[in-house]
Fold this sequence. Notes:
Helices cover 13% and strands 50% of the residues. By secondary structure, the protein is mainly beta. Strand 7 and strand 8 (148-155) form a beta hairpin. The two termini are 29 Å apart.
Amino acid sequence: MRRFAxxxxxxxxxxxxxxxxxxxxGTNAPGAPDVSDSWALSGDLGxxxxxxxxSAPGRRVRTRAIPYAYADFGRLFAREDTFGAxxxxxxxxxxxxxxxxxxxxxxSAGPHVASRRSPRPVGVGTFQETPWGGVFVDAFDDTVxxxxxxxxxxxxxxAFGPVTFYPQVGVARRSARYVDHLYxxxxxxxxxxxxxxxxxxxxxxxxxxxxxxxxxxxxxxxVAHVERESFDAAIADSPRVNRDGQSAAFVALARRF
Length: 257
């Protein structure tokens, strides 16, 4: 399941916009994207509590503490679980080289279901901060399974008193090799009682979420995010899965720079 790069990017839009206004590198229109060579830290750093609903038989909710980061340092950036560099101006944003820290291998494990080695996705992407909302497109190649992960999302911004909400809708497509690595069952594994061989195909799934941001003080912010990914047949039919989807949420307290 995708970790919360989108939530981190959205929650920090106000700080990025303010930084752009100060340095002349804002992203208010095409031709003026935020691709800066100024080595100044701008963004949010803190800690979060993350809860992920297990998908394997017998697995419940797993909660753990994680570092929380959305920060730009020149062309380099960290967005929660996604790291990279801005290469070239592109529209309302930039063409980026990206890498993700994935925990999908552990998230698909359970009491009688061994964990798989988590993917290591690397690729290219872009975040477009348009006048109508944020558009996110990423194309990853997984160096572990040899499969691919494609993601596209749109997010709007709605202010309600002191809290700003960011509703999100997107789609994630995992290739057959990517899905098989996480949810397939080999003939050897199927020799264990109560299981069967399974070779899934590619998976295309909708992702819905909402983020909220509350600015506690000029330099402190609380960010919350809830996300639901609905499994299609390629994943839901796996013996390693006993749910029709996976939900996750986090709450973070961060210092804004």
